[in-house]
Structures are given as C-alpha cells and as structure tokens.
Amino acid sequence: MSNDLRVPAEQLYRDELEALIAGEKHPVPAGWRMSPRSVLTYICGGKAGKKEITAKYIGHTRLVEIAIATLVTDRALLLIGEPGTAKSWLSEHLAAAINGDSTRVVQGTAGTTEEQIRYSWNYAMLIASGPSDAALVRSPVFRAMEAGGLVRFEEITRCASEVQDAMISILSEKRLSIAELAKEVPARKGFSVIATANTRDRGVNDMSAALKRRFNIVVLPSPSDLATEVGIVQKRVKELAASLDLGADLPAVSAAEQVCTIFRELRMGQTLDGKNKVKSPSGALSTAEAISLLANSMALAGNFGSGTVEAADIAAGLQGAVVKDDDKDHVIWQEYLNNVMKKRGAGWRDLYRACEERNAGGRKVKVKEDGEEDEEKA
User: Fold this and answer.
1) For 341, which DSSP code?
2) Three-state DSSP class for 180?
3) What is residue 203's three-state secondary structure?
4) 9-220 domain in CATH 3.40.50.300?
C-alpha cells in the first residue's frame, strides 16, 4: 500500500484500468487508452472479462455518456453542480481512464494567474541566457496540449474573468502562442479540457458568453433519492476507511441514513414526507460533506471513544456541518431538533439527545418515552 496521503485514481484503480485496456474490443480514439464504451464501464461499473469493475460514479448514466461523447469531439467539457455532486471526482476518473494521468490540474482560486494557465519562466535561466525552451515553465494546460491529453480546470468560476478568458484562444485555435520565442505550440489530437464550476459561486466571477460557447455543459444533480445518497456515502466512507487508519468500525447503515436524511431535509427545506417545512442553513450540506462527517465520526470513535461510532460522535460533526459562522444557523438547527428530530421516536432518541447537548453548550437532556424532555445542568 502506498504511503501517499492521496493516491491518483489511475494508481488506485490500476488493475481495473489494465483489465479494460487488455480486453478492449472497440475503436479507441486518438490520444485515448481505451474506447468510450470502456471508459463508461470504468466510471459506472461492469465487467472486463472476469474482472469486476466497481462503479466510481453513482448517478445518471446518460450524463456520463454525454460527458464522454463530448471529449471525443474537439469541444471542452464543463461539469456544473451543487457542492458535493462529484464534479471533481468524475473529472479525475475521466482523465484517469482516458489518459492514465489525472494529475494535470489547474486549481481555480482568486489568486490564479494567467501564467498558471499558459506558461511562465525560470527567471534565473531567463536572466542568465534569455528566453529559451529550457527556461520555459509549462503549465498543466501547456503539457496537456503537447501530450495530446486532458487537463482538469477545477472551480473555473473562482478565477478572475480576465484569467478565465485566457482559455478562449486555446479552446478556439487549439494553439498556444509564445511571443518571446516567436513560435506557437499546436495541440495534439486528444487534447481537451474538463472544467468544473460550483453553482454556489454564480455571481462571483461569471464566465463570459464567449468562454461558455467553447464548452459543452453537463449539469450533475444531487442524488435523486435517499437510498441512492446513502449508497454513495457508505461506499465512499468504506473506501476512505480502507486508506486511512481511523481505528473504528464502519458506521451502521442506520447512522448513514440518519445523516443523509438530515442533510436532505435541510437542503430541500422540508421533511422527506413533505408534511413539514424547515428552514435551510447557509451551508451546502452536500453528499461529500456527509461522507466527511461520517469519516470524522470514525476518527473520533477510534481515537477517543469505544471504536464503534455512536450518536455523540455523529452529533459533533453535525454541529459543525450545520452551524457555520452565521448565528441564524444556530436558530435553524435548534428549530429542526425541536420540531423534527425530537418527534421521530426511539430510533432517533440518542442522536437527538447528543445533538441537543452539543447545541445547548453542555445542557444534558433526558428524553422520556412520551417525547417530553427533562434538563440537567452539566
């Protein structure tokens, strides 16, 4: 097992990728390692000979087909969705399957510069001998163009508009001009861009219409139902537990169901049965955050608890996930505890009591069989 904290997808799933390549029966596009059908099998699951291929993305297969078909053409791909809808996860696995290299990444932030998209210089060599190919520092986009591969552009709308627009000529002309060397670098067949954008960031740095026209846009929805979301959460928590020494047993299915139920109801603004309205807090409460919460609960249980994830371990994570810096979130969470969770019966009693104690700053709560509560000072 690797000692790296995070292993790229092409290394983590090397056996599956090699099995798909070895059993390839369909035409492979220029610059690709396998056919679009095999990429779909790698992403959505299936078989390669006798090798079982695990599903990397659980959702709408048609959306994955559209994304793969886009990359076969000369169009770039833009994945849009709420936080935690597996945009980055899908882009990484697409790059791993198609090129075997998911590490060519531009991370979009407010501090991303045009040089990080195009190229920069080794200034020591530049001063010593002037502009030269050896002094050129190639960006991930530059390297992908030279290799005829994919580059991932994460959170593109976090970049300033003028930085985003550095991509327009690259996506239109498929060439990168280096004025200092009086030459242009053409993109080889297979070059494309997979960008991601967060719907919560709309209005921060909106993409120009000219840039949007260079992308095919695929909107990734949140999981369609509770069972699907619980399945995703369980799968990813199991994978995280296998790679990290968390020291605890996997959370029970009921724990994952409770966390996902709370997150879905607070996201939607109503209970799952549609009978009660609830207020939504400022946080995203995404599927990714549910995964992180349960993994952290395992770390708490393994290092400071019994080794079994209990209600108190989950409540600690829920408090931080729901109640951010906004005082309003504290009120919303308290109302949800009193109006929804408290009334759900014995199966929710331990979690309600643990959450109420956390939210009340140490006030211990005893819940009677009739749903009434007694209070004790900690």
Assistant:
1) G
2) helix
3) coil
4) yes
Residues 6 or more apart in contact with residue 269 via CB below 8 angstroms: 277, 278, 279, 280
**Residue for token digits 């809808």?**
85
Q: Is 188 exposed, middle or buried (0-12, 13-18, 19+ CB in 10 A)?
A: middle
Using DSSP bridges, classify how beta strands 76-81 and 215-220 pair: parallel, antiparallel or unpaired: parallel
CA 85 to chain centre: 6
Distance from the Cα of residue 116 to its chain's centroid: 22
Query: Could you read off the pLDDT of 252-272 as tens digits, one per residue?
Result: 999 999 999 999 999 999 999
Instruction: Give CA–CA dist 77/359, Å, rounded.
Output: 43
The secondary element (H helix, E strand) that includes residue 373 is strand 373-376
- Enumerate the H helices of the chain as residue ranges: 9-12, 14-22, 36-44, 61-72, 87-99, 123-129, 140-147, 161-164, 166-173, 209-212, 226-243, 253-268, 287-304, 311-322, 327-339, 346-359
The pTM of this model reads 0.86
Which band of pLDDT confidence, cut at 50, 70 and 90, is reported for residue 376? very low
Sequence-distant (≥ 6) Cβ neighbours of residue 167 within 8 angstroms? 117, 141, 153, 193, 211, 214
Contacts of 12 (CB under 8 A, 6+ apart): none
pLDDT band at 296 (very low <50, low <70, confident <90, very high): very high
Which residue in 16, 6, 5, 186 sits closest to 96, CA to CA?
16
What confidence score (pLDDT) does residue 203 get? 53
Token pair for residue 159?
């970049």
**Could you give the CA distance from residue 111 to residue 159 in angstroms, rounded to a whole number?**
7
Collapsed DSSP state (helix, strand, coil) of residue 66: helix
Of the two residues 291 and 245, the one the predictor is more confident about is 291
pLDDT in the model for residue 377? 39
State the chain's mean pLDDT as an integer. Answer: 89
Where exactly are the structural domains of the chain? Answer: 9-220, 226-376
C-beta separation of 65 from 44 below 8 A: no
Fill in the amino acid letter for 223: P
∠ at Cα 137 (133, 143), nearest 5°? 90
The Cα 336–Cα 349 span in angstroms is 14
